[in-house]
UniProtKB/TrEMBL annotation, chains A, B:
PROSITE patterns the record matches: SIS (PS51464)
Organism: Candidatus Woesebacteria bacterium RIFCSPLOWO2_01_FULL_44_14
A Pfam family that the UniProt record links to this protein: bact-PGI_C
UniProt entry tagged with the keyword Metal-binding: no
Keyword Isomerase recorded: yes
GO molecular function ontology, one term from the record: carbohydrate derivative binding
Domain called SIS: residue spans: 41-189
Protein name: SIS domain-containing protein
GO biological process: carbohydrate derivative metabolic process; carbohydrate metabolic process
Amino acid sequence: MINLDSLGDIKDFDQGEVLTSIRRLPEQVADAWKQVTDGEVPAACRLAKNVVVSGMGGSALGARIADSLLTDKARSPIEIFTEYRLPDYVNQETLVIASSYSGNTAETLTAAGEAINRGAIVYGVTTGGELARLLSQKNIPYYLIDAKENPSGKPRLGIGYSIGAILAVLARCGFINLLDSEVAEAVEEAKKFVKAFGPTVPKEKNPAKELAETLYTKIPVLVASEHLFGVAHAFKNQLNETAKTFACLFDLPEADHHLLEGLGYPEAAKAFLHFLFFESGVYFGEVKRRYSLTQEVVGKQGVSFTNYHLTAYRKLPQIFEVLILGSFVSFYLALLHEVDPAQIPWVDYFKAKL
Amino acid sequence: MINLDSLGDIKDFDQGEVLTSIRRLPEQVADAWKQVTDGEVPAACRLAKNVVVSGMGGSALGARIADSLLTDKARSPIEIFTEYRLPDYVNQETLVIASSYSGNTAETLTAAGEAINRGAIVYGVTTGGELARLLSQKNIPYYLIDAKENPSGKPRLGIGYSIGAILAVLARCGFINLLDSEVAEAVEEAKKFVKAFGPTVPKEKNPAKELAETLYTKIPVLVASEHLFGVAHAFKNQLNETAKTFACLFDLPEADHHLLEGLGYPEAAKAFLHFLFFESGVYFGEVKRRYSLTQEVVGKQGVSFTNYHLTAYRKLPQIFEVLILGSFVSFYLALLHEVDPAQIPWVDYFKAKL
């Protein structure tokens, strides 16, 4: 097993610039926020009655994060669709944001074409590809990501662009109130987490390294609520793609109504489960109380868990804290398994055969 | 281990009338559809611009099923909230459906009070409790479930009422087109599945018994798409509550973008995973192609799976097929583990301590 405190070991396994991309997540957010704030958005977007974001995998994560942050402050329903089709209600009064990092995601291209046909108010977020060609041809505004802060080239590691862009377009179109200064402060806090979880901080002081070692032989079962649910989804996907590790995600209070009962069988598999709770001081009061009680019930049934108590105070910085924690935990876990954190051979195999 | 073909064994373990409630799921749907179709709904509901359903656990499942059925034919966004709070956009133009089987669910009561305060168009679905008292006092119409077809008294086994009621109120309010005759035909088909999966049909001809035996030592990983995603959620919850079994749920095409990569570790846990795919002939063409290819990739990584190909032809009957299959599989799996399928001691413990 490699030593997570050995910078040489880390460099040997990280041939794809994953570490550099993780470190630059805050800069990605800042860059996207600025570009979209200064760029063109659809003139009619302020009149939209609802918002649909179409994106898959890494390209949907920015929207999930924005959506769970915004539940309590958006003026219209915002729905994320990870399918080929759009919901039937999409029409001239819907803002459709087509998000595809590569610009070549089949589902999103189909949905974008459908949105254009229905006369929806369309905006795009992409590094190029077919999506950029389609939108250019139709004179539809989009944010062309200049991905210099994501040298790995992997969509899931360019998620900062997607988060910054979607927050910015929603703010520009009047769906949320979010100030330049709030984003700038959150980006500065995010940079502190990049340092705190980074490879030069030794194991005993580094929660990301510690968590990676805890999860080494485990199936991570993530539990989050409210504004942290979307970013916990990103954490789970990174565990899959970067660490090649199976993982599940649940939300409280909902999981208290069924999952607590689901820890009996299979008995021999219980030793593999490890619950990871994301506890926040800004959750709704009743939800906060549920965290300790849920942990008690999980523990009483002989299932191990970690409670990660968020250290940032406000919602957006907490989201970045989980994002950066998840990115580093997945990275370290890949190294412990001695696999390349950049490559996704099965997803590539699948796409080639499709 | 008990013999699933022994009616005596089954009766010994099922002291809580679970089997009777499962058998009457079709009658629950029919009864709720009729009562809500003939009853009072809010006069203004046809003018609503969007719909929010508030419900937890078993009481949210009807809405999830309706929502995933309706994605492609609803005239407005329909969102399900399983939290204490309502989204900020809820106002006088929102239809809020408060669904709580017991009528005493803390989250739903809080959300219903908030909806009333904001002047939303409110409707309720409940067997009584605080929710019935609150709505009666405010002269707000609701469907008072007369739960004679659910002798177990468990909300998850009264899910037919919730499905029938939510479909009916959405149809009454003009959000979906659904005819009496379509519902009646689907209910008749559902009755056939009750027979086909029931205890008198022996193992070798009974897919529900066969699946329960397959899953006996496994963590079920359910995979579904489109109209079947909501009911797969119900299947997962029943595995937790009825069979006390841990389970996860994923949707295609989304899972192809990350989960395929997450089957490497922990290596020793892979033997516990068993994927259960719900393949439907009415999925979108590209989605159908993904099922066989996803199964190939899962199999190549040494993970076992079952492909359940839906036998009903249309969407609503397929939803009932999965609902009844899941109810019976969970029931048989509880018996194999020799646990009472009715009791949910940990959820009860949790609620008592909250």
